[in-house]
Amino acid sequence: MKKFLMLLTIFSLMLLSACSGKDSDSKNTDENGKEKSKETFTIGVIPVQTEGSMEAAMEKLQSTLSEKLDREVAVEVYPDYNGVVEAMNYDKIDMAYFGPLTYVVAHEKSGAKAIITQLIDGEPFYYSYIITHKDNPWNSLEDLLKNSSEADFAFGDINSTSGSLIPSIELKDREVYKSEDDHSFKSVRFTGSHDATALAVQNKQVDAGAIDSAIYNQLVDSGKVDGEQIKTIWKSEKLFQYPWAVHENTDEETIKALKEAFLAIEDPEILDAFGASGFTEASNEDYESIRQAALKEGLIKE
After folding, report:
1. Which one, of 157, 159, 191, 154, lies nearest residue 171 by Cα?
2. Distances from the Cα of 62 to the Cαs of 43, 51, 65, 72, in angstroms?
3. Which of 43, 226, 271, 296 could be disulfide-bonded to 276 (CB atoms 3.0-4.6 Å)?
4. Which has the closest alpha carbon to 135: 226, 211, 196, 223?
5. What is the pLDDT of residue 45?
């Protein structure tokens, strides 16, 4: 009798174990029996604009990428540029939408790899603009700098390529700017974003400001900024567009799936959130000029 009870107990345990295994398997498969990925793929996005919500577009992007990658994707817009760099550096995100400068810093810090960038009117380039109000007498940067001591100047985010790095180098080369506290202007401020700079110029809170050309055009097209009130008095050389970069440990299969997913995006709401007409492939080599600028400013080291 004892032997029978022992055999019955062993059989029951085996049965429970088998059922548990089936339950566990079912949790890792979808309704079609396809294996699910265990971990969420996380993406950090720099704040492209402060005005207006990107929430709906980011939800659509999440859904699109989740479907293509066959795993849950979470997209989060960070409050500032540096936050995205640090999130990548401390392995809190798998992918990021960087500005060119923040990408170069992230590549140096954590090995982030650019794989995709956006197209603006079919081209992967944009510019840094310096803009002023139409009522001001300046029609060129030279005109502005003749009376720099009378002008309030605005940069965007201190970690922005077109809103800070490139225009600050230009102004340093012209010997009117060294730092926020050492310059020839009446005042210098950092607004924190491109749209804040545009509105500050439009509302005559500052006399001139540096801005991303693509975002400026997007703000004008959307009616958030009145282009009739603003004129461009300086334009930089071509800059390669903002990259989407993956963590250095991302496997090739995931990279391939991400590229295919972005290249197929045609949803206007997603594209408009980034002022894009589409996406194209990118690589670390595309940002060499920005790397050289960052080295010149001491933002990264050899």
Report:
1. 154
2. 9, 21, 5, 8
3. 271
4. 226
5. 93
Half-sphere exposure of 208 (CA within 13 A, CB side): 28
| pLDDT > 50? residue 10 | no
pLDDT value at 24 more than 80: no
Among 214, 210, 273, 276, residue whose Cα is nearest residue 239 = 214
Q: Which of 165, 155, 134, 123 is nearest to 296 (CA)?
A: 165
CA 12 to CA 300: how far, in whole Å? 64
What is residue 286's three-state secondary structure? Answer: helix
Paired with 117 in beta bridges are 243, 280
How far, in Å, CA of 164 to CA of 85, rounded?
Answer: 17
Whether 47 and 189 have beta carbons less than 8 Å apart is answered as: no
Q: In what order do the strands lie in the sheet with 187-190?
A: 187-190, 152-155, 208-212, 128-133, 230-235
Q: What are 278-297's pLDDT values in tens digits? A: 999 999 999 999 999 999 99
Residue type for 111, please? G
Distance CA 88, CA 212 (A): 24
Instruction: Centre a 10 Å sphere on the Cβ of residue 36 and count the other Cβ atoms it contains.
Output: 11
pTM of the prediction? Answer: 0.82
Report the alpha-carbon distance of residue 80 to residue 75 in Å, rounded: 15
Mapped to the 3 state alphabet, what secondary structure does 150-187 carry? HCEEEECCCCCHHHHHHHHHHHHHCCCEEECCEECCCE
Query: Which residues 6+ apart lie within 8 Å of 195 measured at CB?
Result: 49, 50, 51, 215, 219, 224, 225
Both structure tokens of 235? 């334009």
